[in-house]
Amino acid sequence: MSASNPGSEPQAENKPPGFARRLRNYLIAGLLVWIPIVVTIWVLRFLTGILDQSLVLLPRAWQPEELFGFDIRGWGVLPSLFLLLMTGLIVRNLFGRQIVGGFEDLVRRIPVLGSVYGGAKTFSETVLTDKGTSFKQVLMVEFPRKGAWSIGFLTAENFGEMRVRTGRDMVTVFVPTTPNPTTGFIIVVERAEIIFLEMSVEQAFKMIFTLGVISPEWQGAPPADARLAPPGTGT
Predict the structure, then answer these.
(1) pTM of the full predicted structure?
(2) How does strand 194-196 pair with strand 149-156?
């Protein structure tokens, strides 16, 4: 009986992949190209659909249905940008701020509508400006159960009543859903129960959009007070 050839196993390992495996690889390669394109197109369609709502401010004769006989998606991008630019120029001077301030005082006096407007105003100022720390600190919190950690964002930490009634340092955390981070859960937890992360908000949203497939690289030793304070702050 002849001895087996020691080099036969490496040759088997280098055997070209079969038809089914090659087909699978081709499909995956195609998906890697088209998934980012489709997601980008979907996001652009969603955003342009919102911006197209500004067309109601244009005269009827200037709207695409009247000019071309059919609707053009994205036609409202330029009018929206122009409207935002002109509004910003107006409110940056004293006269414009007085006009906007008078309008806001009037709206806030209207029942129900004033509360909605006030909440939206506070939210937009907090998120889009440097006021406060909302959505600027990424963290981990045990949610929806003990032992299961979720990515979240610190949204508020000035709840005097909750601190007094619980006797604890309570903060509010927004835990977004994936892959649509515009929805999620608002939870109130003790500060000692959250862990602040060094990843940026952009990196966190990228991780959420990709279902956790893309996670930011991190090198360094964990701070001793990771549960007590955001990264970069003193003890």
Answers:
(1) 0.53
(2) unpaired
What is the biggest distance separating any 2 CA atoms in the chain, rounded to whole angstroms?
Answer: 102
By CB atoms closer than 10 A (0-12, 13-18, 19+), residue 234 is exposed
Query: How do residues 126-143 score in pLDDT, each as one tens digit?
Result: 666 666 566 778 999 999
Note whether 162 and 156 are within 8 A (CB): no
Residue 160 corresponds to which tokens in the numbers above? 């005097």
Phi/psi for 57 (5° steps) reads -80, -15
Which strand (E) or helix (H) includes residue 151?
strand 149-156
Question: Cα 229 vs. chain centroid, distance in angstroms?
Answer: 23
Which one, of 173, 134, 132, lies nearest residue 152 by Cα? Answer: 173
Beta-carbon count within 10 A of 188 CB: 12
- Asked whether the beta carbons of 54 and 78 are under 8 A apart, the reply is no
Q: Are 138 and 201 in contact (CB under 8 A)?
A: yes
Dig out the tokens for 94 from the structure. 């004293």
63-81 per-position pLDDT tens digit: 666 666 666 666 667 777 7
For the chain, state the CA radius of gyration.
27
Phi, psi values for residue 163, rounded to 5°: -70, -40
Task: Measure the CA–CA gap between 171 and 134, rounded to whole angstroms.
Answer: 11
* Terminal alpha carbon distance of the chain: 76
Q: Rounding to the nearest 10 degrees, give the CA dihedral for residues 17, 20, 22, 24.
A: -130
3-state secondary structure of 154: strand
What's the angle, vertex CA 175, arms to CA 113 and CA 155, rounded to 5? 55
